[in-house]
Amino acid sequence: MKDQMAEARARLQASIDGLERRMKMDANDLEYETHLRQKRQLQQILDRLKEQAE
């Protein structure tokens, strides 16, 4: 179970990192805002998972 949680957290973090990279390259505000919203949602999920693990 802990391995699965660790893998899930790692995948979430990788998704967040990928969105951050894309945000730096986004050409327009709509794409940036979309990626920013997705990043915030994933970060909230990751934070909740970390809190549950403690």
Describe the structure.
The structure is a single chain. This protein has 54 residues and is mostly helical. The chain has a domain at 28-53. The protein contains two helices and no strands. Helix 1 packs antiparallel against helix 2. The longest helix has 25 residues, at 29-53. The protein is elongated. The two termini are 14 Å apart. One of its GO terms (molecular function) is transferase activity. Keywords: Coiled coil, Transferase. This is Aminoglycoside phosphotransferase. Residues 2-52 form a coiled coil.
Structural class: mainly alpha
Mean of the pLDDT scores? Answer: 89
Please report the number of helical segments: 2
Straight-line N-to-C gap: 14 Å
> Outline, from the CA principal axes?
elongated
* Total beta strands: 0
Kindly summarize this structure in a few lines.
Helix content is 91%, strand content 0%.
Draw up the topology in text.
Blueprint: H1 2-25, H2 29-53
Features:
54 residues, 91% helix, elongated, Aminoglycoside phosphotransferase, coiled coil, transferase, transferase activity
